[in-house]
Amino acid sequence: MSRADELVAWYRAHRRDLPWRRDPRPWPVWVSEIMLQQTRVESVLPYFARFLERFPTPAALAAAPIDDVLAAWAGLGYYRRARHLHQAAQQVVERHGGEVPDDPAAFAALAGVGRYTCGAVQSIAFGHRLPVLDGNVERVLCRLHRVEEDPRAPAPRRRLWDAASALADHAHPGEVNQALMELGATVCTPRSPRCLLCPLQAGCAARAAGVAEALPRKAKRKARPTITVVAGLARDADDAIWVARRPDDGLLAGLWELPGVEAPDADVRHLAAVGLVGGGDATVVEHGFTHRIWAVHVYRARGTPTTAHHTAVRAVPEHALPTLALTGPALKALRACGVALPHRRGAGRKPLS
Ligand code: SF4
Fold first, then answer.
1. What is the mean pLDDT of residues 226-243?
2. Does residue 207 have its Cβ closer than 6 Å to ligand 1?
3. Pocket residue to mutate for ligand 1, from 200, 211, 213, 217, most atoms within 8 A of Cβ
4. More confident: 350 or 122
5. Cis, peptide link before residue 216, omega less than 30° from 0
6. pLDDT digit string (tens) for 270-314?
7. How many CB atoms lie within 10 A of CB 157?
8. Residues 5-50: pLDDT tens digits?
9. Is the CB of 193 under 6 A from ligand 1?
10. What is the pLDDT at residue 350?
């Protein structure tokens, strides 16, 4: 039995029963792959069913206004995924008559489709022999081949893609790929990998050398600058909370947040830039982006915010906030200020290119 055969046999016996596996048509598979990026399976489950009910085909999504799409995505976070999926659905309608193309090159040309998404959807839904490499697969392959270098560096990255390609060159590439992802999620976990349950244990170089848990080795990232943001938690006469929509371009484009601005320091008077007057002690939350960290200082405030730094403002009752496409920092800030909101994020799939 080849390694890929062993993976497929293990996968068939041990895979979790998930809705997109029960219905491996291209559109549900695509939606699931996008939703699972950076988000845990348990968080995706309710959204997946609702989203497909609302947008059962690419054409249905393509025809919807972007605000409806973002509202259906509200709570999942990382809204750029929803924008790309919407745009890609429109391209599928224009270029492919509404059918997800059974053609890796055509699929890879759609908005938001990188090498990972292309490999996942084209292998699972159409049986193309293409690899996937996400954070889970990276860990499994780093250990299997005892890759000691930082897997984000170009040479080891190529080696990992090659190893993934060799495995996916199989009669059932979709199952091989899902087996690798499942193995990383459930057996070859970051800490305490359960090697005795692993179908790859006999040939695993890291296990043989006793270094499994130490891999993959990642170099520390450069320190990110911290930017101060001053924001106001203000309510209208009906106790609804004022939120403001960010510009359509740039960081967190088009999402809703507490009215606020980036500022040189945390002085409450910076709230005047968004038309508010604040006071008291600030509640401070931090939020990390790839290249910077925001330290958001939230003051209790009064007044009606202006649109000087935003495209719209709106007062929203607390119970309706979960239906709004809120930024991650806004969610943290609202929670820290005692507003009850559901948690949504988690370490899900991290597609690698
Ligand atoms: Fe991971 Fe252990 Fe399997 Fe190697 S044997 S791939 S370290 S679970």
1. 97
2. yes
3. 200
4. 122
5. yes
6. 999 999 999 999 999 999 988 899 999 999 999 999 999 999 999
7. 18
8. 999 999 999 999 999 999 899 999 999 999 999 888 998 999 999 9
9. yes
10. 72
Task: Give the tokens for residue 353.
Answer: 């290119």
Q: Ligand 1 atom 2: the closest Cα is on which residue?
A: 195
Residues annotated as catalytic are 33
The answer to whether residue 108 scores a pLDDT higher than 70 is yes
Whether the predicted pLDDT of 74 surpasses 90: no
pTM (2 decimals)? 0.83
Q: What is the CA radius of gyration of the chain?
A: 23
